[in-house]
Amino acid sequence: MKRIVSLIAVGLLALPSLALADDAPLSEFAYILNTFSFLVGGMLVFWMAAGFAMLESGLVRSKNVATICLKNISLFGIAGILFYLMGYNLMYAGVDGGFIGSFGIWGADDAAALAGDYSAGYAAGSDWFFQMVFCGAACSVVSGCVAERIKLWSFLAFCVFLTGIIYPIQGSWVWGGGWLSEMGFSDYAGSTLVHSVGGWAALTGAIILGARKGKYGKGGKINPIPGSNIPLATLGTFILWIGWLGFNGASALSLGSAGAAIEQSNVYINTMLAPCGGMIAAMIMVQVLYKKVDVTMALNGALAGLVSITAGPAAPSPGAAILIGAVGGVLVVLAVPFFDKLKIDDVVGALSVHLVCGIWGTLVVPVTNDETSFMTQLIGVAAIGAFVVVTSTIVWLIVKFTIGLRVSEEEEYKGCDVTEIGMEAYPYFQGRNIS
Question: What is the CATH number of the domain that holds 414?
Answer without folding.
Answer: 1.10.3430.10
